[in-house]
Amino acid sequence: MTIRRVGIVAKHGLTAASPHVSELATWLRARRVEPVFEHDTGVLAGTAASGGLLATRDRLPHEVDVIVVLGGDGTLLAMAACTARAGRDIPILGVNFGSLGFLTEVRIDELLPSLDTLLRGEAACDERAMLEAVAHRHGQVFDTRIVLNDVVFTKAALSRMIELSVSVDDGFVTRVKADGLIVASATGSTAYNLSAGGPIVHPSVDALILTPIAPHTLTNRPVVIPGTAVVEVVPHTSGSPDEVFVTYDGQSGYPLGESDLLRVRKSARVLRLVKGPTRGYFEVLREKLKWGER
């Protein structure tokens, strides 16, 4: 793949990224590769963005061959959703500011060497499965999302508990009484799912994970199901319109009503994540989870 344009996206308000964005733009131009700045990132770049191309986050995947994300896993999740909506499986290179991220595993001092390897066509990419969530109301589709980590059903602040009917491949599983329910991808197993006591699933495993959040019935445990499965979730709201919320990758969401149904399955889209130059998956786990430390 010939790389002619590289999109640059920094976490909103991350002033610490400013000199690195400027350096990256200069580095790319010296190699006859055109940087394309997300609008807010162009402000961070200052004079380095002068005369350069700008694009909104939604438009950026249409304009470039690779996207460099500077920030944390949340910033990368937002761009993963943008690339999926654009229908483009272009590589994303995630650069972490601060502690190592599960997704943004490249450190700032590794940015230019990693990008150089990518420009030479020698970089390895992981293909991460994404989730498609289709919401129905009164039998009609009213919302469709593609996310990387999870679809989460949670209670409103004053709700004591929510009830959800869960089916897999049209077979009824259970009626969950809990603070919520997580439907996660293998990549998302190390996100909210992990905090809620769900299992870690290697991202190359073709699987979905159903994890109840603080279930009323203690025998309701996380379940790993085939990646080909279709999960259907129906809320029981007791007439309250704001009792059950659905959130997507922790980025956005909305309340659900009694008649609503969400169908979650593996998406046809994938995220192509540029691998770090020196670390494998288990090294990231060891560092993030502090395995082996006293």
For the structure shown, list the relevant keywords.
294 residues, alpha/beta, Rossmann fold, Tumour Suppressor Smad4, twelve-stranded mixed β-sheet, six-stranded antiparallel β-sheet, 7 helices, 18 strands, 40% strand, globular
Provide a descriptive summary of the structure in words.
This protein is of the alpha/beta class and 294 residues long. It folds into 2 domains: 5-124 and 275-289, Rossmann fold; 130-268, Sandwich (Tumour Suppressor Smad4), CATH 2.60.200.30. The protein is built from 7 helices and 18 strands. It has helices at residues 18-30, 39-45, 60-63, 73-86, 111-119, 192-195, 281-289; strands at 5-10, 34-38, 53-55, 66-71, 91-96, 106-107, 125-137, 140-147, 150-155, 162-168, 171-178, 180-185, 207-213, 223-226, 231-236, 244-248, 252-256, 261-274. Strands 1, 2, 3, 4, 5, 6, 7, 8, 10, 11, 15 and 18 form a 12-stranded mixed sheet that branches. Strands 14-13-12-9-16-17 form a 6-stranded antiparallel sheet, with no helix packed on it. The N and C termini lie far apart (46 Å). The model has no long low-confidence stretch (mean pLDDT 91).
Could you give the topology of this structure?
Layout: E1 5-10, H1 18-30, E2 34-38, H2 39-45, E3 53-55, H3 60-63, E4 66-71, H4 73-86, E5 91-96, E6 106-107, H5 111-119, E7 125-137, E8 140-147, E9 150-155, E10 162-168, E11 171-178, E12 180-185, H6 192-195, E13 207-213, E14 223-226, E15 231-236, E16 244-248, E17 252-256, E18 261-274, H7 281-289
Parallel strand pairs: 1-2, 1-4, 2-3, 4-5, 5-6, 5-18
Antiparallel strand pairs: 7-8, 7-18, 9-12, 9-16, 10-11, 10-15, 12-13, 13-14, 15-18, 16-17
